[in-house]
Records
---
Amino acid sequence: MRSRQAQVGQAADELAAGKRPRMSGIARKEAIAGYFAISPWLLGFLIFQLAPILAAFYISSTEWRILSAPEFIGVRNFDKLLFKDDLFWQSIKVTVIYVIFRVPVSAVLSLALALLMNQQLAGRRLFRTIYYLPAVIPLVAVSMMWIWIFNPEYGVLNSFIRLFGIEGPQWIHSSRWALPALIIMSLWQVGTGIVIFLAGLQGIPAHLYEAATIDGANTWQRFLKVTLPMLSPVVLFALVMNVIGSFQIFTQAYIMTAGGPGNATLFLVLYIYRNAFEWFHMGYASALAWVLFVVVLVISLIMLRSSEHWVHYEGRIGGA
Amino acid sequence: MTTRRLSRRHFLQGSALVAGGAFMVACAPVAGDPGAGAADEGESMSEEPIELVAQYWGTRPEFIEDREILAQRMTEKFPNVTASQNSVPGGQYGEKVLTAIAAGTPPDTMQLNHRWEPFFRGQEALLNVIPFADADDEFTFDVFYPRIIELGTTEGQLVTVPRGWNPFVIYYNRALFREAGLDDLPTSWENDTWNWDSFLETAQALTVDSDGDGRADVYGMFFPYWYPFLRLGGGDVLSDDQQSSGLGSPEALAALQWLADLRLTHGVSPTPAEIEGLGSAQDLFTAGRVAMFTAGAWGIGALTRVEGLDWDVGPLPRAAGQPPVGYTQYYGHGIPKGTQSADWSWEYLKIISDEESNITVAQTIGDVPAMRHIAESEHFAGLPKPPTRQVFIDSAPHMQVWPTIAPITEIMSRAITPELNLAFLGEKSVEDAVAAAGPQVDEILAALWGN
Amino acid sequence: MKLRRRETVSLQLVTALGAAALLFPFLWMISASLQTLQEVEAFPPIWIPEVPQWTNYIEAVVNYNIGRALLNSAVVTTVSVVGQLIVCSLGAYAFSRLRFPGRDAIFLLFLATMMIPHYVTIIPLYTMVWSAGLIDTYTALIFPGLFSPFGTFLLRQFFNQIPISLDEATLIDGGNHWHIYLYVIMPLSRAGLGALGIFSFLGIWNTLFWPVLVINSKELFTLPLALAMAQGQFVTLIHVQMAGSVIACVPVIVVFLMLQKQFISSIALSGMKQ
């Protein structure tokens, strides 16, 4: 669907194309205004986005330890990380496991809660507030809070488990449980997903449900045949955003585990941080950051490509 | 010299803001020319007004006050100088100073220790101070502990003028020792009775679970640092030729195993989870939850302020068949390359390291001064608490330090610590942890030596 | 859609249980922040402290230098959000409404860079900041964040939905492009501006990575940095840490409760617009 503005714009372009490529007074005025309006942003974009991207590209092909000039080494950084650096693969493994568990579980959880919120329940607004609250408070504070919740000796979580006569795991003090602990903690912040899904649910026209009910569909069938297809674009969006966000997990590991125990929570971004700002391998850290980009890009593209098979857009629902 | 510096900075700002990052990196500045320094005397020692900044880490009030006094003394001695301090949190020190040097605005002097001296020397960012000392009649290295100077000198270069040192000792709670029916610790580093066996027995006798909940109320011992014990046991993280990991040696393995057993087998040391909840070794010690702990001389200052705590110090216990090891961390100050005037830096450095400053180290900060005659005077050795201060000083002949090769921090934090932590948690055997760390250490060393 | 009574009751129960589970850590944090160390360690856990230890809060304020950190966070966040709204709305206006040679090329270039994670650019940005001598300044905290690509993109989508006939009307009435921007686009985009504002508020208020890099002195610590540094530097005890965390949460929670509707629609809008 094209916006009206785009149509107008195109029409104008066509008109202009017919004439000499010289601007009329009005068009020149508009162009000047355009350059004027865009210049602060454009300058910022060039300096703080485009130039750093180009620089990062160059840095990733150098060995650069800040004090001496960057030394060009071609693709050696990438060669090293792909074939010689076990810690890189450890960081990929840890990050991917985190994403694989966190994203689907939090999607299901927030969808379920959004469905609940969408019912005519008493205190709906209060509940919505409570569910969303954890998603707004500073991650540093959240992390400090969960350090103590997870403390195997004094933490409230293991105290609770102890009520059943079981000694809980060592959580962030165990290389086996540290990653699950961070996943559990991330599920506490499902609020964003709930809000997105709730908005999507409220956008589904009531007449579709009415029609389905007339056709004899029960609650479950209505969910499968109406809610899910109608919600699928929102689901796709939420999943992609969540994948992109989850790949960039840093604060929790920085505050709570420092990547440990062992390297059990050495997420990719934490590994980038340590290479750059603890060991000062700027070139190598840049190469790692590009890997982050490629991984996120490829996974997003796969998700978008696969969405052709499961995302339904409005026009198609009647016919399907 | 000042004008050149300014114009470089302008150029940097310009290029950063106009041409952007790509260009920036291509012309990233290189640290100042190594030829500068003692050579261009006279010319730079002018009466022109000059501002000098000394770089430190740590922001505790007593530190800030001490540095303020040093700056004032510099300004008093040279009226044309405006001296000041710049103190940053310890965790950001390296990054802060590194980028300041790279940006062409280094501090005039900078604090250095076992962690930062190797790093900045590896970056070739520090001036050799020996030529300055040689050219200066007011200054001599002879007043310092010779071993500190000896350990700090590599290939004829010395980059740190020492100010203080922190011998590691055992701090112990005398009241808890009485309760457990134990005698005071010996005071001599050379004695044979205070060894790893008697240390373990002592720790076991001190570990008490009075309410029977299976969790000790008092732990015998807490070791926040494993490295001193590795050295006590005759091991080290690097091989003697510094070409590979040294953790696989029988001595190193035995020492690490013994440390791991303290917690895992004998239960005389708190777990990380308990430590996390209860605070630092010092907190646990002053709360009477831990009867012994290891730390440098910095423990004196804090513990002296605690009222009603009956404590003392003893030497580190000797491992079977090993000589005494006085593991220590020294610190001091150096001159980064590319300062506005290395000679003025040297003058500031001299004040920061002089006798009066050493007395402050002894009396206010609580570390052992680097000047031997100050350490052995009434300013340190003669102070009343703890009664056995001589233990710190007597460690001098046995002094050993942290490895000095440039990438030691990376070797520790990237390759060794994560693996050893697993061993100390009991998730991995010490052998497996060491075997996993070894190749990573070797790889960093290979990159360092270029093979 | 009507539910039967029993269904409603059970759903209500599930919702309440879920809410309780989510509130549980919060309540524990508040409770622990008012306990003595002995109480925090106790098993089974104590929920109501015998005597509320308000001194924990005083200790946290002193240890973490919270007052100053709050001020810094407020300044940095306010300037960043306002600046971002101005810069991004101008850029978005140009992209959405004004035709000038090169516009579409710029837009394409811009879209191409949008997917690149922040962490790719952080090392060059950091290099620029120290080369320009801006380490440890408000400028370093604020400036690079003003030119949010996401913000421009979001607002452009918003502006595109405002009928162009309104622009034409303004032009016919003798107005110029600035009038359109000021009196047509901006007033009609309050929802979009609010959405972007809140989105950036949360992001900037809570961020840790960038302040860790460019800020060194205590006097410039933002709230997350002050907390993180205190946590890492000198070990403080559970109850004091919890008091510090509570203090850090309060401003966001207050703003959230005041602007709840906008928060919700901010997330929903930035989520729905594609």
---
Amino acid sequence: METRQRRIGRWLRALGACLFAGLLAAVPAPDAGAEYGDVVINNYSDAAGMRPVVFPHWFHRVRYACKVCHADLGFKFKAGGNEINMLKIIDGQYCGACHNGEIAWAIENCNLCHSAKPRTPTMVHESTTQGLAAQGRPAPSAARAAAKGQP
Amino acid sequence: MNARALVLLLLAAAAVPVASGAEPGSGKAVYDSACAACHNSGAAGAPKLGDAAAWQARFASGIGALYRSAVSGKGSMPAKGGQARLTAAEVEAAVNYMVLAADANAKVPVVAARGDGKAAAAAAAPAQAAPAAATGPGGATAAATAQQDAGAGVYARACAACHTSGVAGAPKLGDATAWAPKLKAGLATLQSNAIRGKGAMPPKGGNAALPDADVRAAVAYMVDRAAGARTAAATGTAPSPAAVTAGAAAPAAPAAATPPVPATAVAPTPVAAAPSRAADASPNAFNRLLRSATRRNPPPHEDGIHDPAIEEVYMLQPPLTGLAGLPTSAAGNRIDWVKALNQGKITPRFDRLDPQVQAAVMDLNIVREVKGSMPDVVYPHKQHTQWLDCSNCHPAIFKPQKGANPMSMAAIMLGEQCGVCHGKVAFPVSECRLCHSKNKVAGATATAPR
């Protein structure tokens, strides 16, 4: 009789553990749901008290071939890899080559670009590497640098 | 004091008609995008544009009352004409436009001063806010797209004003729950209802000039979208409670937001979106990684990275609007960009300033034999040089010499080699067969005579 009660108790405890594990699994994964290719750029924005910038690739590639920005304007293929600041933009470099009030709307519309939620990190959203970064793995270049650093 | 006020009033009254002519944020532009659907045809008792008699009765209560009704809603007039993204100043500018159209001598001093800043901001943002008005290649592209894809185009022109936001009980685009009872009637019935009008739905959506065929195409487009959302929902995700909450919350929100305070108008949206996220994250969902059709290409304020608390986020073009009518694919933006380019649905400029500059296309396929049973890779220079310059890839990413670039899928998935673009903006690595397209021995023996 007593052993049977103990067995039921153990079974109930196991059931409880399972339910707890199920609850843990149900915690939603960080899921931005951004449009494929949306780039958040937060090199200086947060520190300066501005919202980070969202660059929508899809909107721009309808209107311009990749080459215009990535060859002619010198944008590197790296989120956050271009040292863009507002001074350069005002001088007509990077975004400022078009966002000058002639080709596209001018920089007075701060929040049209600076529109991300505060503290959103720099990254290409919905990219294959985003899935890895979410699991805390270092980016390949960082991993290689670390490996090189070790004797 | 009095005389000064009168002078100001006259100045403002003189300024308004001049200003309302051209710019995209003007009263006319707002009217065209938000009010015309009902006020052109007089749907649901709306006083028609330029109908002096109908408007005269409303002047009695004063311009202030007209503004209040337009911003907060009154009777069958939804708050802000059902477009919660509009600022109060924009709505008031549209009222001014309508009042002036009804009576050129009406005193509409008004908000010219108060609304100027916001109206100007709206006017200065044409590229993302209003593609049709955009200068440069964008505008032409949008127009061409609309013509080619009749249903989506007609929807955007004639139906979107109500069916995007759910004004006056209109079933929202892609809202499977709202469309389900209507789909039972069958496509033909829905199309004839749309042409003849039913309930709050005016004939042809209030656009009497629309050919019947266009209305049918638009209905077919909406039904298609609703059916797509429903099949996705049937696979295990449950957007219905979210949709219901959103539907209930949407009309309430703008009503509460009489002054132009974006935060209050905005708040319900993320709350309403939350249950759908939670449902998708359930461990018993069909596939938590596979995004249901209703959650693809979300509008900026729902995409999780834009801050829904700021007004400008609502001025950005939603992907579904910007990408409407383009050929679709199974991954990425869900757009087949190469096909879109080759079919002429988009005409991206190859030079920042000169629309005449053409890409220097190089038609050279490079075949790479790969390990194991995977089909060999055929790399087409053609589709790449349509978008890119040689210097984008050579020599930094790929040495321009056959065999000089050892490659691996692992590196590609980590964002190197092909992965510099594929998996970020170009189609992702899930589309194996788009690159691994040349079958090996198996394919050869299958075609060889026995």
